[in-house]
């Protein structure tokens, strides 16, 4: 199975009944950053020093007391005590640093809530579901769910707060897309035929709102830098791949082969460039942003963006 490192598509596991009438707050100050799973993991990790039964310790002190967010993650990605034990064994120094990461969680929460206020100024009808910070088996996945955002911190987030904040804002934008498109049309994108452009623009939108409009740190967008290194050739490849709906290179990456040395998920950067061009060329920026979120016709949006590679 292929997953996106750090950012993955909003899964179809979300039930239509749960998303049709969400009960998420619409005030940034009411958003919640839930970190109890981190605390439970730290307790379990410390207990491993005196208890050789690693599986049982992880089960009782972490899995059995999981929050709804962690339970959802466990079900989606088949996270087990055995898988977590193996990850800890292979990366002990990484999991040991989670304690230090957790000690700064109050500051992280305040910074995140501050960014949500900026977010609401840009997208005034936003909703703010809870964010669950959790520990998994070294995959570094962030994903939206009916319970809120699920972010596993162990791969990159514990060493770079910018990556964590990006993950949370990016996934938050997918919630706004659901609200703009409606759940039924949003979810059908994943099953409809020839959906490559839809997915690329959907992810590009999430990154555009995150890096360009909210966080204003486009220079930190590594995928964009990788894409711009060979923009013309990649754009030409995209034309061929789009015709054949060959989207793996642009959207997916395997943990096993690390995308065979290629930069990962360049479709996110390409979608970003198209959406950015559409937005900047629009006279009415508010209307353009609403159209980008709703994305009724991806082909028309790309055409009207007037994007061309440099």
Tertiary shape: globular
Helix run count: 17
Q: For the terminal residues, how far apart are their CA atoms?
A: 35 Å
User: What about the largest sheet?
Assistant: 5 strands, mixed
Integer-rounded radius of gyration: 20 Å
What string gives the helices and strands in order? EHEHHHHHHHEEEHHHHHHHHH
Q: How many strands?
A: 5
Total domain count: 2
* Helicity range: 55-70%
Roughly what fraction of the amino acids lie in strands?
Answer: 5-15%
Structural class label: mainly alpha
Main β-sheet, spatial strand arrangement: 1-4-5-3-2
Q: Which residues sit in consecutive blocks of at least 5 with pLDDT less than 50? A: 1-21
Return the average pLDDT rounded to an integer: 89
Features:
mainly alpha; 2 domains; 5-stranded mixed sheet; disordered N terminus
């Amino acid at each position: 199975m292929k997953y996106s490192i750090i950012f993955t598509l909003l899964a179809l596991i979300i039930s239509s009944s749960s998303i049709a009438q969400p009960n998420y707050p619409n005030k940034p100050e009411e958003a919640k950053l839930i970190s109890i799973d981190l605390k439970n993991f730290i307790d379990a990790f410390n207990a491993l020093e005196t208890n050789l039964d690693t599986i049982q310790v992880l089960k009782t002190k972490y899995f059995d007391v999981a929050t709804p967010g962690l339970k959802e993650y466990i079900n989606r990605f088949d996270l087990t005590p055995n898988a977590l034990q193996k990850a800890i064994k292979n990366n002990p120094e990484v999991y040991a640093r989670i304690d230090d990461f957790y000690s700064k969680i109050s500051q992280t929460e305040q910074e995140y809530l501050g960014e949500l206020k900026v977010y609401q100024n840009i997208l005034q009808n936003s909703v703010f579901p809870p964010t669950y910070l959790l520990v998994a088996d070294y995959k570094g996945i962030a994903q939206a769910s009916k319970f809120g955002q699920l972010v596993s911190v162990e791969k990159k987030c514990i060493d770079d707060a910018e990556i964590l904040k990006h993950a949370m804002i990016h996934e938050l934008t997918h919630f706004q897309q659901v609200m703009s498109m409606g759940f039924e049309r949003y979810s059908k994108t994943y099953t409809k035929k020839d959906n490559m452009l839809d997915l690329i623009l959907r992810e590009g939108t999430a990154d555009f709102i995150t890096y360009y409009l909210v966080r204003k740190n486009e220079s930190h967008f590594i995928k964009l830098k990788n894409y711009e290194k060979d923009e013309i050739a990649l754009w030409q490849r995209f034309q061929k791949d789009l015709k054949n709906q060959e989207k793996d290179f642009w959207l997916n990456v395997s943990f096993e082969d690390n995308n065979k040395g290629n930069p990962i998920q360049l479709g996110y950067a390409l979608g970003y460039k198209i959406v950015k061009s559409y937005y900047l060329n629009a006279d009415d920026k508010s209307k353009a942003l609403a159209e980008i979120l709703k994305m009724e016709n991806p082909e028309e949006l790309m055409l009207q963006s007037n994007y061309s590679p440099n």
